[in-house]
Design goal:
Blueprint: E1 3-13, E2 21-31, H1 35-46, E3 51-59
Antiparallel strand pairs: 1-2, 1-3
C-alpha cells in the first residue's frame, strides 16, 4: 500500500495525562489515503482515549 503525507489540523481533549490542544498542526505519513489512517496516527500520539476532531487534511 502506498504512503501519503497528510498535513493535518486537528483539536483534541482527554489525551495522555488529560492533555488537550486546539488547532494542532502536524505532518503525518500514513499508509493509504484515508481519514481513518490519520486518526490512527493521532490516537497513537495522544492515546486511544483522546477525543479528536480533524479540521483539515491536505494530501501531498
Amino acid at each position: 500500500m502506498a504512503t501519503y503525507k497528510a498535513r493535518t489540523i486537528y483539536s483534541y481533549k482527554n489525551g495522555k495525562g488529560n492533555s488537550s490542544g486546539s488547532r494542532v498542526h502536524t505532518l503525518f505519513v500514513v499508509q493509504g489515503k484515508s481519514e481513518s489512517a490519520v486518526m490512527t496516527e493521532i490516537k497513537k500520539k495522544h492515546g486511544e482515549q483522546a477525543e479528536v476532531i480533524i479540521n483539515e487534511i491536505k494530501w501531498g
